[in-house]
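thought: fold this chain, then report.
action: predict
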Amino acid sequence: MKLLWISHFTVGVLFLVLFLLTGGYMFTNFPELYAGREEVRMMFRSTHIYILMSALINLMVGNYLLNSANIDFLKLKRLASLFILVAPILLFVAFVYEPPEYLIDRPISFWDVISLFVGVLLHTVLNLKQLINNVNND
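observation:
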């Protein structure tokens, strides 16, 4: 469990810093980046916010795992964590690749949001199962 906590915490902090760096990049280079095409500007900005979202989710899961001593459902928690840990990496790839290629359907971002959804939902279901088990044992 300690490795999962360290992984989520590290990914969360790293991509929080990357969020700030991509914001600085957009601030200093934005007119040249989108060359007056508002759709491309929107794509950069939305993916930028997705990077923040995935960083914050990783920090949240790291905090949850730090306080989770119960080893029930450990393999499923690891799988759920894998979905969440991959998300910031894919979002950064989407930030670099999708806007310049004018991929308005956002194929990388789409699957990344699905990955975050599955990871967070799986952690939530496992938490509910753990809570029900604790209530039934009391």
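thought: worth noting. The chain is about 90% helix and 0% strand.
final: tokens above.
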